[in-house]
Amino acid sequence: MDQPAIRIESLEKTYAGGKQALRDVSLDIPRGQIFGLLGPNGAGKSTLINILAGLVVKTSGKAMIWGFDIDEHPRSAKRSIGVVPQEIIFDPFFTPRETLEIQAGLYGIARAQRQSDALLAAMHLTDKAHAYARTLSGGMKRRLLVAKAMVHSPPILVLDEPTAGVDVELRRQLWDYVRQLHATGVTIVLTTHYLEEAEELCDRIGIINHGRIVANEPTRELIAKTQEKSVVVTFDRDIGEVPTNACFENIELVDERTLQIMFRKDRVNAGEVLAALTAAGLGIVDVSTRDPDLEDVFLSLVSADTAT
Ligand SMILES: Nc1ncnc2c1ncn2[C@@H]1O[C@H](COP(=O)(O)OP(=O)(O)OP(=O)(O)O)[C@@H](O)[C@H]1O
């Protein structure tokens, strides 16, 4: 079987001040996927990514990038990954084209093989090719960072919170580009706070909390794991007393004629919930159900982990 794009084994990181940012993290990211790494603020996402990028030194454990151990083959590991950092950093006195040429030079890419113009075009920056980087808008700077991460055509592109604070239009453009890259076979790893984005974009999701991996599964399976489902029911008359039943996990009045009932789909089905309402003497006129989404899964995993 193919090696995973990234393999992490028992990775630990304790910062100089004593903060333990990663605890026994083991994780495989399969090739050819869009993998989302989610977690609350301070969970350890950037630490993990910065170790892979060679920017933070791990305390112990192993990491392999495209089959190359970051300790034994650091250069090959580094060549296999492009990282778009969270912070926008580059020399404001270079133009976007110069920035890409310099980066390509650092990777020892011969002039004839450089693809600065194609990358600028892909990121819609052609007309800014010769402008000073300091004159670019925030969104353009971010696109330039993506282009910079791709100069050496790595098989893996890692984006750390690329759409934080970015407007909707630019976010859409960035994801279009990420999808295009993915379609050409590039493995994508991204961290995001936007659960909807992860749900829409990622094949697989890892959740990290307090430096520990608490989930790592295909997105659909992860979402299917949440057992709580809700049904909103409208009745033909005002509800006097809110009914009770053992199969309701929770019941709330939405308005005088509408109730929202939470139930566990591993214990009962919506039909049984409705039957319990009818038995309470209420006439049903409308019903809608809502399936759990990633936010529900995320909150339940993170709060369960915090409780232990
Ligand atoms: N250089 C550092 N020195 C000491 N502690 C650090 C350092 N960098 C990060 N930390 C701490 O390590 C923990 C993990 O931080 P990290 O930045 O990896 O989290 P994160 O999940 O990326 O959070 P965010 O989403 O807010 O960026 C935090 O408690 C943070 O304060």
From TrEMBL:
Q: Can you provide one Gene Ontology molecular function annotated for this UniProt record?
A: ATP hydrolysis activity
Query: A Pfam family this protein belongs to?
Result: ABC_tran
Superkingdom of this protein's organism:
Bacteria
Q: Which UniProt keywords apply?
A: ATP-binding, Nucleotide-binding, Transport
Per the database record, which ranges form the ABC transporter domain? Answer: 6-235
Q: Please tell me whether the keyword Nucleotide-binding is annotated for this protein.
A: yes
Name of the featured protein: ABC transporter ATP-binding protein
| Organism the protein comes from | Sphingomonas lutea
